[in-house]
């Protein structure tokens, strides 16, 4: 899945102009969350009562439903979306794993040691930190709901439905906002919302209020991911889209979800879940501060290749 995202995200600059990155990126995330919501609704409809002997079978069958969605809705892209032509050398067809590891090392050196692309390097560090916070929230949201508010499976499914629905709306609305004010300001706004969400989780007492927090979290998830992808596309030279998006989606994307869960679990063990949730706000605050050091180029600007 993560390997596919590298190439999927790298398509963005080829599909639209820089002035529309925000909207197109927002539409993409909105459709993704809409698909997730559809799967959630279908699975919820087919799940029998937990006391039923067939319950475990249908839980397993939900993975088949998800796989069918992956297969069905990937076909339009494979069939109808043209791929930019690339000139491949003979050596690029052999030793993919070895060459890939060498290229990853070269990319790391270019971005973080030699600083040939300083704005991308600074942004990826900020993204690594605040995305760690986002992934930690996603990982522990259901656990928090169960332990703090004693929510059952049905209530947690409703919680995720609220998150998915608001994520669709947030992705679309903030896509337009991104094109109006720029991705950097949009990300800053969404990180401020995330800080508010962690404060809300610390003080939440009822399931109803928790759903309100979930509503805000959905908006923040969709909008922050969409705006981040837009800023990365704006900063990246067209010649190195797949290479740099590999670091964006891989090293600084999902692989960043290491520190946050460790800190959350450690604080939860020594204190409680509320304090642990509040501590995640530090990731958003740190990411927000680091993001201010990134200079956002004009949307008509084309990043230059460094020789």
Low-confidence stretches: none
Q: How would you state the average pLDDT, rounded?
A: 84
| Sheet with most strands | none
Helical content stands at: over 70%
What spatial form do the alpha-carbon principal axes imply? globular
In N-to-C order, the SSE pattern is HHHHHHHHHHHHH
What structural class do you assign from the helix and strand content?
A: mainly alpha
How many structural domains in the coordinates?
Answer: 1
Distance between the termini: 32 Å
Radius of gyration: 20 Å
Classify the beta-strand content into a percent band. under 5%
Overall CATH architecture: Up-down Bundle
CATH superfamily: MFS general substrate transporter like domains
Secondary structure tally, helices: 13
At the fold tier of CATH, the topology name is Growth Hormone, Chain: A
* CATH level 1 name: Mainly Alpha
Walkthrough of the structure:
Helix content is 77%, strand content 0%. It is an all-alpha fold and 307 residues long. It has one domain (2-77, 103-291): MFS general substrate transporter like domains (Growth Hormone, Chain: A), CATH 1.20.1250. The radius of gyration is 20 Å and the shape is globular.
């Amino acid at each position: 899945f993560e390997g596919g995202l590298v190439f999927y995200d790298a398509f963005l600059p080829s599909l639209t102009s820089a002035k529309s990155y925000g909207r197109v990126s927002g539409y993409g995330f909105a459709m993704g969350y809409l698909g997730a919501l559809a799967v959630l609704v279908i699975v919820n409809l087919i799940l029998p009562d937990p006391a039923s002997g067939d319950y475990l079978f249908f839980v397993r069958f939900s993975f088949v439903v998800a796989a069918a969605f992956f297969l069905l809705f990937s076909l339009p892209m494979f069939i109808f979306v043209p791929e930019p032509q690339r000139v491949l050398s003979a050596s690029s067809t052999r030793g993919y794993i070895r060459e890939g590891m060498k290229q990853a090392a070269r990319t790391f050196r270019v971005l973080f040691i030699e600083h040939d692309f300083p704005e991308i390097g600074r942004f990826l560090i900020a993204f690594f930190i605040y995305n760690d916070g986002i992934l930690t929230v996603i990982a522990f949201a259901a656990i928090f709901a169960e332990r703090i508010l004693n929510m059952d499976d049905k209530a947690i499914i409703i919680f995720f439905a609220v998150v998915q629905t608001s994520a669709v709306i947030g992705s679309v609305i903030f896509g337009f906002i991104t094109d109006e004010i720029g991705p950097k300001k949009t990300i800053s706004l969404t990180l401020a919302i995330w800080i508010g969400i962690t404060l809300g989780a610390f003080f939440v007492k009822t399931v109803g209020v928790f759903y309100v927090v979930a509503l805000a979290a959905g908006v923040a998830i969709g909008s922050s991911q969409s705006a981040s992808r837009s800023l990365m596309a704006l900063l990246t030279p067209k010649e190195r889209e797949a290479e740099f998006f590999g670091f964006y989606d891989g090293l600084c994307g999902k692989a960043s979800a290491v520190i946050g869960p460790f800190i959350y679990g450690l604080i939860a063990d020594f204190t409680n879940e509320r304090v642990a949730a509040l501590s995640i706000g530090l990731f958003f605050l740190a990411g927000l501060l680091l993001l201010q050091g990134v200079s956002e180029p004009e949307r008509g600007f084309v990043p230059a290749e460094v020789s």
